[in-house]
Amino acid sequence: MHPCQVDVPNPVDAGDIAVLTSHLTKTFESPSGTVTALDDLNIQVRRGEFICIVGPSGCGKTTLLRIMAGLEKQTSGRIYVHRSSNNRPLTAMVFQSDSIFPWMTVERNVGYGLQMQGVPKKQREETVKKLLAMTGLTAFAQSYPHQLSGGMKQRVNVARAFAADPEILLMDEPFGLLDEQNRLILQKELMDIWQESQKTTVFITHSVDEALVLGDRLLVMTAQPGKVKRIIDIDLERPRDIVSLRGDRRFIELYSEVWHLLSEEVRRSRARQE
Amino acid sequence: MSDYVRKTSGRGFQDEVVVLEDVQETGPSLVAKRTLFRLITFLSPSLLLVLWEVLARLNVIDVRLFSRPSLIFQTLFPLMSSGELFRHAWISVQRIILGFLCGAVPGVVLGLSMGLFPPVRASLMPLVASTFPIPKLAIMPLILIVFGLGEASKVFTIAIGVFYLVLINSMTGVLSIDPIFLDVAKNFGASRRQFYLTVALPGSLPMIFAGLKLGMGTALLLIVAAELSAAQAGVGWMVWRAYDMFDIERMFSALITLAVMGYLLSIALDALEKKIIPWKER
Ligand SMILES: Nc1ncnc2c1ncn2[C@@H]1O[C@H](COP(=O)(O)OP(=O)(O)OP(=O)(O)O)[C@@H](O)[C@H]1O
Ligand SMILES: [Mg+2]
Fold first, then answer.
1. Architecture of domain A1-85+169-174+202-274
2. Is the pTM of this model over 0.95?
Protein backbone atom coordinates (compact mmCIF):
# COMPACT_ATOMS: atom_id res chain seq x y z
CA MET A 1 0.00 0.00 0.00
CA HIS A 2 2.70 2.33 1.06
CA PRO A 3 4.73 3.55 -1.88
CA CYS A 4 7.79 4.16 0.24
CA GLN A 5 10.73 1.95 -0.33
CA VAL A 6 12.27 1.32 3.02
CA ASP A 7 15.49 -0.37 1.95
CA VAL A 8 17.32 2.95 1.83
CA PRO A 9 17.12 5.91 4.20
CA ASN A 10 14.11 7.96 3.25
CA PRO A 11 15.39 11.25 1.86
CA VAL A 12 12.08 12.99 2.39
CA ASP A 13 12.33 12.58 6.14
CA ALA A 14 15.31 14.88 6.15
CA GLY A 15 13.95 18.02 4.58
CA ASP A 16 10.61 19.67 4.07
CA ILE A 17 9.65 17.36 1.27
CA ALA A 18 6.38 15.42 1.19
CA VAL A 19 6.85 13.46 -2.02
CA LEU A 20 9.97 12.90 -4.02
CA THR A 21 10.27 10.94 -7.22
CA SER A 22 13.54 9.89 -8.69
CA HIS A 23 13.81 8.58 -12.24
CA LEU A 24 10.22 7.47 -11.95
CA THR A 25 9.17 5.49 -15.00
CA LYS A 26 5.98 3.64 -15.70
CA THR A 27 5.19 1.59 -18.76
CA PHE A 28 2.06 -0.33 -19.60
CA GLU A 29 2.00 -3.42 -21.75
CA SER A 30 -0.91 -3.55 -24.09
CA PRO A 31 -1.70 -5.73 -27.11
CA SER A 32 -0.75 -2.89 -29.41
CA GLY A 33 2.64 -2.43 -27.81
CA THR A 34 4.30 -0.83 -24.84
CA VAL A 35 3.01 2.52 -23.66
CA THR A 36 5.38 4.69 -21.68
CA ALA A 37 3.16 6.74 -19.42
CA LEU A 38 5.87 8.33 -17.29
CA ASP A 39 9.47 8.67 -18.38
CA ASP A 40 12.24 9.47 -15.93
CA LEU A 41 10.15 11.85 -13.88
CA ASN A 42 11.93 13.78 -11.13
CA ILE A 43 9.76 15.99 -9.00
CA GLN A 44 9.51 17.16 -5.42
CA VAL A 45 6.36 18.10 -3.63
CA ARG A 46 7.01 20.24 -0.57
CA ARG A 47 5.24 19.71 2.69
CA GLY A 48 2.13 21.83 2.93
CA GLU A 49 2.27 23.06 -0.61
CA PHE A 50 -0.47 23.09 -3.16
CA ILE A 51 0.92 21.82 -6.41
CA CYS A 52 -1.08 21.72 -9.61
CA ILE A 53 -0.37 19.53 -12.59
CA VAL A 54 -1.42 20.28 -16.15
CA GLY A 55 -0.55 18.43 -19.33
CA PRO A 56 -2.11 17.07 -22.50
CA SER A 57 -4.61 14.27 -22.19
CA GLY A 58 -2.90 10.92 -21.85
CA CYS A 59 0.41 12.34 -20.64
CA GLY A 60 0.40 10.31 -17.44
CA LYS A 61 -1.08 12.65 -14.83
CA THR A 62 -3.49 10.09 -13.43
CA THR A 63 -0.76 7.46 -13.51
CA LEU A 64 1.51 9.68 -11.41
CA LEU A 65 -1.23 10.27 -8.87
CA ARG A 66 -2.04 6.58 -8.68
CA ILE A 67 1.59 5.76 -8.00
CA MET A 68 1.62 8.38 -5.25
CA ALA A 69 -1.48 6.78 -3.77
CA GLY A 70 0.11 3.34 -3.89
CA LEU A 71 -2.52 2.06 -6.28
CA GLU A 72 -0.02 1.43 -9.04
CA LYS A 73 3.58 0.34 -8.93
CA GLN A 74 6.27 2.10 -10.93
CA THR A 75 8.22 0.13 -13.52
CA SER A 76 11.49 1.65 -12.41
CA GLY A 77 12.76 4.54 -10.35
CA ARG A 78 11.79 5.41 -6.81
CA ILE A 79 9.15 7.36 -5.00
CA TYR A 80 9.34 8.53 -1.41
CA VAL A 81 6.41 9.77 0.59
CA HIS A 82 6.70 11.39 3.97
CA ARG A 83 4.48 10.14 6.74
CA SER A 84 4.28 12.24 9.85
CA SER A 85 1.51 10.58 11.77
CA ASN A 86 0.25 7.07 12.18
CA ASN A 87 -3.37 7.74 12.93
CA ARG A 88 -4.20 9.55 9.73
CA PRO A 89 -4.32 8.03 6.27
CA LEU A 90 -1.31 8.93 4.18
CA THR A 91 -3.26 9.83 1.05
CA ALA A 92 -6.85 10.18 -0.04
CA MET A 93 -7.75 10.47 -3.65
CA VAL A 94 -10.52 12.22 -5.49
CA PHE A 95 -10.86 9.95 -8.47
CA GLN A 96 -11.27 11.28 -11.96
CA SER A 97 -14.07 8.91 -12.88
CA ASP A 98 -17.33 8.18 -11.12
CA SER A 99 -16.20 6.22 -8.11
CA ILE A 100 -18.75 6.65 -5.37
CA PHE A 101 -20.36 3.44 -4.17
CA PRO A 102 -23.84 3.01 -5.68
CA TRP A 103 -24.84 0.83 -2.74
CA MET A 104 -24.22 3.45 -0.07
CA THR A 105 -26.15 6.57 0.74
CA VAL A 106 -24.40 9.90 0.20
CA GLU A 107 -23.79 10.09 3.92
CA ARG A 108 -22.13 6.69 4.11
CA ASN A 109 -20.07 7.40 1.01
CA VAL A 110 -18.70 10.58 2.54
CA GLY A 111 -17.93 8.82 5.81
CA TYR A 112 -16.27 5.85 4.14
CA GLY A 113 -12.66 6.81 4.87
CA LEU A 114 -13.47 7.56 8.50
CA GLN A 115 -15.32 4.28 8.86
CA MET A 116 -12.33 2.39 7.49
CA GLN A 117 -10.09 4.15 10.00
CA GLY A 118 -12.39 3.03 12.78
CA VAL A 119 -13.51 6.50 13.80
CA PRO A 120 -16.45 6.19 16.23
CA LYS A 121 -19.85 6.71 14.72
CA LYS A 122 -20.67 9.90 16.59
CA GLN A 123 -17.51 11.68 15.60
CA ARG A 124 -17.89 10.41 12.06
CA GLU A 125 -21.37 11.82 11.75
CA GLU A 126 -20.17 15.22 12.86
CA THR A 127 -17.46 15.41 10.23
CA VAL A 128 -19.80 14.11 7.56
CA LYS A 129 -22.39 16.70 8.45
CA LYS A 130 -19.88 19.49 8.12
CA LEU A 131 -18.72 18.29 4.73
CA LEU A 132 -22.22 17.75 3.42
CA ALA A 133 -23.03 21.33 4.31
CA MET A 134 -19.86 22.53 2.64
CA THR A 135 -20.58 20.67 -0.58
CA GLY A 136 -24.25 21.62 -0.56
CA LEU A 137 -25.46 18.05 -0.19
CA THR A 138 -27.16 18.16 3.19
CA ALA A 139 -30.58 17.59 1.69
CA PHE A 140 -29.30 14.50 -0.09
CA ALA A 141 -27.61 12.80 2.85
CA GLN A 142 -29.93 9.81 2.64
CA SER A 143 -30.08 9.61 -1.16
CA TYR A 144 -28.41 6.93 -3.21
CA PRO A 145 -26.01 7.94 -5.99
CA HIS A 146 -28.40 7.01 -8.80
CA GLN A 147 -30.68 9.74 -7.54
CA LEU A 148 -27.97 12.39 -7.96
CA SER A 149 -26.79 14.40 -10.93
CA GLY A 150 -23.28 14.00 -12.29
CA GLY A 151 -22.05 17.14 -10.59
CA MET A 152 -23.53 16.11 -7.26
CA LYS A 153 -21.80 12.75 -7.46
CA GLN A 154 -18.52 14.50 -8.06
CA ARG A 155 -19.12 16.63 -4.97
CA VAL A 156 -19.61 13.43 -2.95
CA ASN A 157 -16.31 12.21 -4.38
CA VAL A 158 -14.61 15.40 -3.17
CA ALA A 159 -16.31 15.35 0.22
CA ARG A 160 -15.24 11.75 0.79
CA ALA A 161 -11.57 12.61 0.32
CA PHE A 162 -11.81 15.74 2.49
CA ALA A 163 -13.54 13.83 5.26
CA ALA A 164 -10.76 11.26 5.43
CA ASP A 165 -8.38 14.07 6.39
CA PRO A 166 -5.25 12.54 4.85
CA GLU A 167 -1.72 13.87 5.07
CA ILE A 168 -1.65 14.31 1.33
CA LEU A 169 -4.73 15.12 -0.69
CA LEU A 170 -4.61 13.81 -4.25
CA MET A 171 -7.16 15.33 -6.57
CA ASP A 172 -7.61 14.18 -10.14
CA GLU A 173 -9.62 16.80 -12.01
CA PRO A 174 -12.06 16.98 -9.13
CA PHE A 175 -14.06 19.91 -10.46
CA GLY A 176 -13.97 18.97 -14.11
CA LEU A 177 -17.57 17.84 -14.22
CA LEU A 178 -19.00 20.66 -12.17
CA ASP A 179 -20.98 23.64 -13.31
CA GLU A 180 -19.25 27.02 -13.05
CA GLN A 181 -21.02 28.10 -9.85
CA ASN A 182 -20.30 24.95 -7.92
CA ARG A 183 -16.76 24.93 -9.23
CA LEU A 184 -16.14 28.40 -7.85
CA ILE A 185 -17.73 27.57 -4.53
CA LEU A 186 -15.71 24.41 -4.12
CA GLN A 187 -12.49 26.09 -5.23
CA LYS A 188 -13.06 28.63 -2.53
CA GLU A 189 -13.83 25.95 0.07
CA LEU A 190 -10.76 24.02 -0.97
CA MET A 191 -8.66 27.14 -0.56
CA ASP A 192 -10.07 27.76 2.91
CA ILE A 193 -9.49 24.20 4.00
CA TRP A 194 -6.02 24.22 2.61
CA GLN A 195 -5.12 27.53 4.18
CA GLU A 196 -6.37 26.32 7.51
CA SER A 197 -4.77 22.89 7.45
CA GLN A 198 -1.78 23.50 5.16
CA LYS A 199 -2.38 20.05 3.84
CA THR A 200 -0.06 18.94 1.05
CA THR A 201 -2.23 18.83 -2.05
CA VAL A 202 -1.54 17.52 -5.53
CA PHE A 203 -4.17 18.77 -7.90
CA ILE A 204 -4.60 17.74 -11.53
CA THR A 205 -6.61 20.01 -13.76
CA HIS A 206 -7.18 20.85 -17.38
CA SER A 207 -7.96 24.45 -16.56
CA VAL A 208 -5.05 26.87 -16.48
CA ASP A 209 -7.27 29.38 -14.68
CA GLU A 210 -7.99 26.94 -11.94
CA ALA A 211 -4.34 25.94 -11.56
CA LEU A 212 -3.27 29.57 -11.22
CA VAL A 213 -5.99 30.39 -8.73
CA LEU A 214 -5.24 27.46 -6.48
CA GLY A 215 -1.61 26.48 -6.74
CA ASP A 216 1.68 27.47 -5.18
CA ARG A 217 3.48 25.83 -8.03
CA LEU A 218 2.44 24.43 -11.35
CA LEU A 219 3.95 21.38 -12.97
CA VAL A 220 3.52 21.39 -16.73
CA MET A 221 4.00 17.94 -18.20
CA THR A 222 5.05 17.02 -21.70
CA ALA A 223 2.91 15.00 -24.02
CA GLN A 224 3.26 11.25 -23.66
CA PRO A 225 5.64 9.96 -22.42
CA GLY A 226 5.13 12.26 -19.45
CA LYS A 227 8.16 14.21 -18.30
CA VAL A 228 8.53 17.53 -16.55
CA LYS A 229 8.27 20.30 -19.11
CA ARG A 230 8.49 23.17 -16.69
CA ILE A 231 7.75 23.92 -13.06
CA ILE A 232 6.37 27.38 -12.53
CA ASP A 233 6.16 29.29 -9.27
CA ILE A 234 2.80 30.94 -9.00
CA ASP A 235 3.82 34.11 -7.22
CA LEU A 236 0.36 35.57 -6.83
CA GLU A 237 -0.56 36.93 -3.45
CA ARG A 238 -2.98 35.04 -1.25
CA PRO A 239 -5.79 35.10 -0.50
CA ARG A 240 -6.61 35.13 -4.17
CA ASP A 241 -9.89 36.30 -5.47
CA ILE A 242 -10.90 34.43 -8.55
CA VAL A 243 -12.75 37.29 -10.17
CA SER A 244 -10.31 40.09 -9.56
CA LEU A 245 -7.35 37.90 -10.54
CA ARG A 246 -8.60 37.91 -14.10
CA GLY A 247 -7.55 41.54 -14.42
CA ASP A 248 -4.23 41.06 -12.61
CA ARG A 249 -1.14 41.68 -14.77
CA ARG A 250 0.99 38.93 -13.28
CA PHE A 251 -1.90 36.50 -13.65
CA ILE A 252 -2.20 37.31 -17.33
CA GLU A 253 1.54 36.87 -17.81
CA LEU A 254 1.53 33.51 -16.11
CA TYR A 255 -1.56 32.48 -17.97
CA SER A 256 -0.08 33.15 -21.38
CA GLU A 257 3.19 31.47 -20.41
CA VAL A 258 1.44 28.27 -19.32
CA TRP A 259 -0.92 28.41 -22.23
CA HIS A 260 1.98 28.67 -24.60
CA LEU A 261 3.81 25.71 -23.04
CA LEU A 262 0.68 23.63 -23.04
CA SER A 263 -0.36 24.30 -26.58
CA GLU A 264 3.10 23.30 -27.77
CA GLU A 265 2.65 19.95 -26.08
CA VAL A 266 -0.91 19.46 -27.18
CA ARG A 267 0.14 20.14 -30.76
CA ARG A 268 2.97 17.64 -30.41
CA SER A 269 0.76 14.94 -29.01
CA ARG A 270 -1.80 15.45 -31.77
CA ALA A 271 0.84 15.45 -34.46
CA ARG A 272 2.06 12.09 -33.21
CA GLN A 273 -1.40 10.62 -33.18
CA GLU A 274 -1.82 11.34 -36.85
CA MET B 1 -36.57 14.37 -54.36
CA SER B 2 -36.54 17.31 -56.71
CA ASP B 3 -39.65 18.50 -55.01
CA TYR B 4 -37.87 18.49 -51.74
CA VAL B 5 -34.94 20.49 -53.10
CA ARG B 6 -37.24 23.07 -54.52
CA LYS B 7 -39.12 23.32 -51.30
CA THR B 8 -36.13 23.84 -49.08
CA SER B 9 -33.92 25.94 -51.29
CA GLY B 10 -36.46 27.78 -53.36
CA ARG B 11 -37.42 31.30 -52.48
CA GLY B 12 -41.02 30.40 -52.19
CA PHE B 13 -40.48 28.36 -49.08
CA GLN B 14 -42.05 29.91 -46.05
CA ASP B 15 -40.96 29.50 -42.51
CA GLU B 16 -43.44 27.60 -40.51
CA VAL B 17 -44.03 27.05 -36.89
CA VAL B 18 -44.17 23.41 -35.98
CA VAL B 19 -46.37 22.84 -32.99
CA LEU B 20 -45.00 20.03 -30.91
CA GLU B 21 -47.80 18.05 -29.46
CA ASP B 22 -48.38 18.36 -25.84
CA VAL B 23 -46.61 15.23 -24.68
CA GLN B 24 -46.63 15.98 -20.98
CA GLU B 25 -47.76 13.11 -18.92
CA THR B 26 -49.90 14.91 -16.44
CA GLY B 27 -51.39 13.35 -13.36
CA PRO B 28 -54.87 12.29 -14.42
CA SER B 29 -53.87 10.86 -17.81
CA LEU B 30 -51.09 8.86 -16.19
CA VAL B 31 -53.47 7.42 -13.66
CA ALA B 32 -55.96 6.67 -16.40
CA LYS B 33 -53.29 4.85 -18.35
CA ARG B 34 -52.28 2.78 -15.36
CA THR B 35 -55.87 1.82 -14.68
CA LEU B 36 -56.27 0.84 -18.30
CA PHE B 37 -53.18 -1.37 -18.18
CA ARG B 38 -54.40 -3.00 -15.02
CA LEU B 39 -57.72 -3.63 -16.65
CA ILE B 40 -56.00 -5.23 -19.62
CA THR B 41 -53.86 -7.40 -17.36
CA PHE B 42 -57.01 -8.63 -15.74
CA LEU B 43 -59.10 -8.87 -18.90
CA SER B 44 -56.76 -10.77 -21.17
CA PRO B 45 -56.70 -13.99 -19.11
CA SER B 46 -60.42 -13.69 -18.48
CA LEU B 47 -60.98 -13.33 -22.19
CA LEU B 48 -58.92 -16.43 -22.79
CA LEU B 49 -61.01 -18.33 -20.27
CA VAL B 50 -64.21 -17.22 -21.97
CA LEU B 51 -62.84 -18.20 -25.36
CA TRP B 52 -61.77 -21.56 -24.00
CA GLU B 53 -65.21 -22.15 -22.52
CA VAL B 54 -66.99 -21.16 -25.71
CA LEU B 55 -64.77 -23.21 -28.00
CA ALA B 56 -65.10 -26.21 -25.70
CA ARG B 57 -68.85 -25.93 -25.70
CA LEU B 58 -68.85 -25.65 -29.48
CA ASN B 59 -66.74 -28.82 -29.53
CA VAL B 60 -63.94 -27.08 -31.35
CA ILE B 61 -61.54 -28.27 -28.63
CA ASP B 62 -61.73 -31.70 -27.16
CA VAL B 63 -63.20 -31.46 -23.68
CA ARG B 64 -61.79 -34.84 -22.73
CA LEU B 65 -58.24 -33.57 -23.18
CA PHE B 66 -58.53 -29.91 -22.37
CA SER B 67 -61.63 -29.79 -20.21
CA ARG B 68 -63.17 -26.36 -19.89
CA PRO B 69 -63.01 -23.60 -17.27
CA SER B 70 -66.43 -24.17 -15.72
CA LEU B 71 -65.67 -27.85 -15.14
CA ILE B 72 -62.27 -27.05 -13.71
CA PHE B 73 -63.72 -24.56 -11.27
CA GLN B 74 -66.29 -27.13 -10.22
CA THR B 75 -63.38 -29.35 -9.20
CA LEU B 76 -61.17 -26.60 -7.89
CA PHE B 77 -63.58 -25.08 -5.38
CA PRO B 78 -64.35 -28.27 -3.44
CA LEU B 79 -60.60 -29.00 -3.39
CA MET B 80 -60.07 -25.60 -1.86
CA SER B 81 -62.94 -25.65 0.62
CA SER B 82 -62.00 -29.09 1.91
CA GLY B 83 -58.49 -27.78 2.52
CA GLU B 84 -56.99 -30.62 0.52
CA LEU B 85 -55.44 -28.31 -2.06
CA PHE B 86 -53.82 -26.14 0.60
CA ARG B 87 -52.42 -29.17 2.37
CA HIS B 88 -50.70 -30.28 -0.83
CA ALA B 89 -49.57 -26.76 -1.67
CA TRP B 90 -48.12 -26.29 1.79
CA ILE B 91 -46.16 -29.54 1.54
CA SER B 92 -44.73 -28.48 -1.83
CA VAL B 93 -43.92 -24.97 -0.62
CA GLN B 94 -42.03 -26.42 2.34
CA ARG B 95 -40.01 -28.63 0.02
CA ILE B 96 -39.31 -25.73 -2.31
CA ILE B 97 -38.21 -23.40 0.46
CA LEU B 98 -36.08 -26.02 2.15
CA GLY B 99 -34.49 -27.10 -1.13
CA PHE B 100 -34.06 -23.49 -2.17
CA LEU B 101 -32.21 -22.64 1.04
CA CYS B 102 -30.09 -25.79 0.89
CA GLY B 103 -29.02 -24.83 -2.62
CA ALA B 104 -28.82 -21.06 -2.34
CA VAL B 105 -26.77 -20.74 0.86
CA PRO B 106 -23.84 -22.91 -0.28
CA GLY B 107 -24.24 -21.42 -3.75
CA VAL B 108 -23.75 -17.88 -2.47
CA VAL B 109 -20.88 -18.84 -0.16
CA LEU B 110 -19.00 -20.84 -2.78
CA GLY B 111 -19.78 -18.40 -5.57
CA LEU B 112 -18.47 -15.44 -3.57
CA SER B 113 -15.35 -17.38 -2.60
CA MET B 114 -14.73 -18.32 -6.19
CA GLY B 115 -15.15 -14.70 -7.24
CA LEU B 116 -12.87 -13.38 -4.51
CA PHE B 117 -10.08 -15.96 -4.47
CA PRO B 118 -8.47 -16.94 -7.77
CA PRO B 119 -7.03 -20.18 -6.37
CA VAL B 120 -10.47 -21.30 -5.25
CA ARG B 121 -11.84 -20.34 -8.63
CA ALA B 122 -9.08 -22.17 -10.49
CA SER B 123 -9.60 -25.35 -8.55
CA LEU B 124 -13.41 -25.44 -8.53
CA MET B 125 -14.25 -23.95 -11.91
CA PRO B 126 -13.49 -27.09 -13.96
CA LEU B 127 -15.70 -29.08 -11.60
CA VAL B 128 -18.55 -26.61 -11.82
CA ALA B 129 -18.25 -26.16 -15.58
CA SER B 130 -18.31 -29.88 -16.25
CA THR B 131 -21.17 -30.80 -13.91
CA PHE B 132 -23.40 -27.79 -14.48
CA PRO B 133 -24.65 -28.86 -17.94
CA ILE B 134 -25.86 -32.26 -16.71
CA PRO B 135 -29.66 -32.05 -16.75
CA LYS B 136 -30.87 -32.29 -13.18
CA LEU B 137 -33.65 -34.61 -14.27
CA ALA B 138 -31.07 -37.06 -15.57
CA ILE B 139 -29.55 -37.51 -12.15
CA MET B 140 -32.87 -37.98 -10.36
CA PRO B 141 -32.58 -41.78 -10.38
CA LEU B 142 -29.14 -41.44 -8.84
CA ILE B 143 -30.51 -39.05 -6.22
CA LEU B 144 -33.24 -41.55 -5.38
CA ILE B 145 -30.67 -44.31 -4.94
CA VAL B 146 -28.47 -42.19 -2.74
CA PHE B 147 -31.08 -40.30 -0.71
CA GLY B 148 -33.84 -42.87 -0.68
CA LEU B 149 -37.50 -42.31 -1.28
CA GLY B 150 -38.08 -39.88 1.59
CA GLU B 151 -38.05 -36.11 1.83
CA ALA B 152 -34.30 -35.83 1.42
CA SER B 153 -34.29 -36.80 -2.23
CA LYS B 154 -36.93 -34.19 -3.09
CA VAL B 155 -35.18 -31.44 -1.22
CA PHE B 156 -31.86 -32.39 -2.76
CA THR B 157 -33.21 -32.36 -6.31
CA ILE B 158 -34.38 -28.79 -5.87
CA ALA B 159 -31.24 -27.79 -4.00
CA ILE B 160 -28.92 -28.98 -6.73
CA GLY B 161 -30.81 -27.05 -9.40
CA VAL B 162 -30.81 -23.85 -7.38
CA PHE B 163 -27.20 -24.29 -6.27
CA TYR B 164 -25.58 -23.98 -9.69
CA LEU B 165 -27.55 -20.94 -10.79
CA VAL B 166 -26.88 -19.09 -7.57
CA LEU B 167 -23.22 -20.09 -7.53
CA ILE B 168 -22.52 -18.93 -11.06
CA ASN B 169 -24.37 -15.66 -10.58
CA SER B 170 -22.66 -14.90 -7.27
CA MET B 171 -19.24 -15.52 -8.78
CA THR B 172 -20.03 -13.35 -11.80
CA GLY B 173 -21.37 -10.70 -9.44
CA VAL B 174 -18.03 -10.39 -7.67
CA LEU B 175 -16.04 -10.50 -10.88
CA SER B 176 -18.10 -7.78 -12.50
CA ILE B 177 -17.57 -5.20 -9.75
CA ASP B 178 -15.98 -2.14 -11.32
CA PRO B 179 -12.23 -2.22 -10.44
CA ILE B 180 -12.41 1.47 -9.50
CA PHE B 181 -14.21 0.40 -6.32
CA LEU B 182 -11.30 -1.84 -5.38
CA ASP B 183 -9.04 1.19 -5.76
CA VAL B 184 -11.31 3.29 -3.58
CA ALA B 185 -11.37 0.65 -0.85
CA LYS B 186 -7.60 0.32 -0.99
CA ASN B 187 -7.04 4.06 -1.04
CA PHE B 188 -9.22 4.62 2.00
CA GLY B 189 -7.46 1.86 3.88
CA ALA B 190 -10.12 -0.84 3.99
CA SER B 191 -8.95 -4.04 5.62
CA ARG B 192 -9.69 -7.34 3.91
CA ARG B 193 -12.73 -7.93 6.05
CA GLN B 194 -13.95 -4.38 5.51
CA PHE B 195 -13.47 -4.82 1.79
CA TYR B 196 -15.65 -7.93 1.75
CA LEU B 197 -18.38 -6.27 3.76
CA THR B 198 -18.41 -2.83 2.15
CA VAL B 199 -17.55 -3.61 -1.47
CA ALA B 200 -17.55 -7.27 -2.48
CA LEU B 201 -20.82 -8.30 -0.88
CA PRO B 202 -23.00 -5.27 -1.65
CA GLY B 203 -21.43 -4.97 -5.10
CA SER B 204 -22.43 -8.49 -6.04
CA LEU B 205 -25.88 -8.50 -4.39
CA PRO B 206 -27.80 -7.51 -7.54
CA MET B 207 -26.31 -10.45 -9.42
CA ILE B 208 -26.86 -12.77 -6.47
CA PHE B 209 -30.52 -11.82 -6.54
CA ALA B 210 -30.72 -12.43 -10.26
CA GLY B 211 -29.41 -15.92 -9.50
CA LEU B 212 -31.93 -16.43 -6.71
CA LYS B 213 -34.79 -15.50 -9.02
CA LEU B 214 -33.60 -17.89 -11.72
CA GLY B 215 -33.17 -20.51 -9.01
CA MET B 216 -36.75 -20.03 -7.86
CA GLY B 217 -37.98 -20.68 -11.38
CA THR B 218 -35.95 -23.86 -11.54
CA ALA B 219 -37.20 -24.94 -8.13
CA LEU B 220 -40.78 -24.80 -9.41
CA LEU B 221 -39.83 -26.90 -12.41
CA LEU B 222 -38.06 -29.45 -10.28
CA ILE B 223 -40.74 -29.80 -7.62
CA VAL B 224 -43.07 -31.43 -10.12
CA ALA B 225 -40.36 -33.84 -11.24
CA ALA B 226 -39.30 -34.52 -7.68
CA GLU B 227 -42.82 -35.38 -6.62
CA LEU B 228 -43.27 -37.75 -9.52
CA SER B 229 -41.61 -40.58 -7.72
CA ALA B 230 -42.25 -41.89 -4.28
CA ALA B 231 -44.38 -39.04 -3.03
CA GLN B 232 -47.71 -39.26 -1.29
CA ALA B 233 -48.49 -35.57 -1.31
CA GLY B 234 -47.67 -32.25 -2.87
CA VAL B 235 -48.97 -30.32 -5.85
CA GLY B 236 -46.60 -32.08 -8.22
CA TRP B 237 -47.85 -35.38 -6.89
CA MET B 238 -51.42 -34.19 -7.54
CA VAL B 239 -50.54 -33.62 -11.17
CA TRP B 240 -49.13 -37.09 -11.62
CA ARG B 241 -51.92 -38.70 -9.61
CA ALA B 242 -54.50 -36.97 -11.81
CA TYR B 243 -52.59 -38.19 -14.83
CA ASP B 244 -52.80 -41.78 -13.55
CA MET B 245 -56.53 -41.47 -13.08
CA PHE B 246 -57.03 -39.38 -16.19
CA ASP B 247 -58.76 -36.72 -14.12
CA ILE B 248 -58.15 -33.70 -16.32
CA GLU B 249 -60.00 -31.23 -14.08
CA ARG B 250 -57.96 -32.23 -11.07
CA MET B 251 -54.81 -31.89 -13.10
CA PHE B 252 -55.72 -28.37 -14.17
CA SER B 253 -56.57 -27.48 -10.60
CA ALA B 254 -53.09 -28.58 -9.55
CA LEU B 255 -51.49 -26.68 -12.41
CA ILE B 256 -53.33 -23.50 -11.46
CA THR B 257 -52.15 -23.97 -7.89
CA LEU B 258 -48.57 -24.29 -9.14
CA ALA B 259 -48.90 -21.11 -11.13
CA VAL B 260 -50.26 -19.22 -8.13
CA MET B 261 -47.50 -20.63 -5.90
CA GLY B 262 -44.85 -19.53 -8.37
CA TYR B 263 -46.36 -16.09 -8.59
CA LEU B 264 -46.49 -15.65 -4.82
CA LEU B 265 -42.94 -16.90 -4.34
CA SER B 266 -41.62 -14.50 -6.95
CA ILE B 267 -43.49 -11.63 -5.28
CA ALA B 268 -41.88 -12.63 -1.99
CA LEU B 269 -38.42 -12.59 -3.61
CA ASP B 270 -39.09 -9.20 -5.16
CA ALA B 271 -40.11 -7.81 -1.79
CA LEU B 272 -36.98 -9.25 -0.21
CA GLU B 273 -34.87 -7.71 -2.95
CA LYS B 274 -36.42 -4.31 -2.39
CA LYS B 275 -35.59 -4.59 1.28
CA ILE B 276 -32.01 -5.79 0.80
CA ILE B 277 -31.03 -3.73 -2.26
CA PRO B 278 -32.64 -0.34 -1.66
CA TRP B 279 -30.15 1.31 -4.01
CA LYS B 280 -31.25 -0.61 -7.07
CA GLU B 281 -32.71 1.54 -9.82
CA ARG B 282 -36.20 0.49 -10.67
N1 LIG C 1 -4.02 0.32 -17.01
C2 LIG C 1 -3.48 0.77 -18.16
N3 LIG C 1 -3.15 -0.09 -19.14
C4 LIG C 1 -2.58 0.35 -20.28
N5 LIG C 1 -2.33 1.63 -20.55
C6 LIG C 1 -2.65 2.54 -19.61
C7 LIG C 1 -3.26 2.17 -18.38
N8 LIG C 1 -3.45 3.28 -17.64
C9 LIG C 1 -3.01 4.31 -18.40
N10 LIG C 1 -2.53 3.87 -19.58
C11 LIG C 1 -1.91 4.70 -20.62
O12 LIG C 1 -0.98 5.54 -20.02
C13 LIG C 1 -1.06 6.84 -20.57
C14 LIG C 1 -1.27 7.84 -19.46
O15 LIG C 1 -2.56 7.67 -18.92
P16 LIG C 1 -3.15 8.62 -17.78
O17 LIG C 1 -4.48 8.09 -17.41
O18 LIG C 1 -2.15 8.74 -16.71
O19 LIG C 1 -3.30 9.98 -18.57
P20 LIG C 1 -3.83 11.40 -18.04
O21 LIG C 1 -2.72 12.36 -18.14
O22 LIG C 1 -4.47 11.24 -16.72
O23 LIG C 1 -4.90 11.76 -19.15
P24 LIG C 1 -6.29 12.58 -18.98
O25 LIG C 1 -5.94 14.02 -18.84
O26 LIG C 1 -7.01 12.32 -20.25
O27 LIG C 1 -6.98 12.05 -17.79
C28 LIG C 1 -2.16 6.81 -21.60
O29 LIG C 1 -1.58 6.72 -22.88
C30 LIG C 1 -2.94 5.58 -21.28
O31 LIG C 1 -3.40 5.01 -22.48
MG1 LIG D 1 -6.38 11.37 -16.00
1. 3-Layer(aba) Sandwich (3.40)
2. no
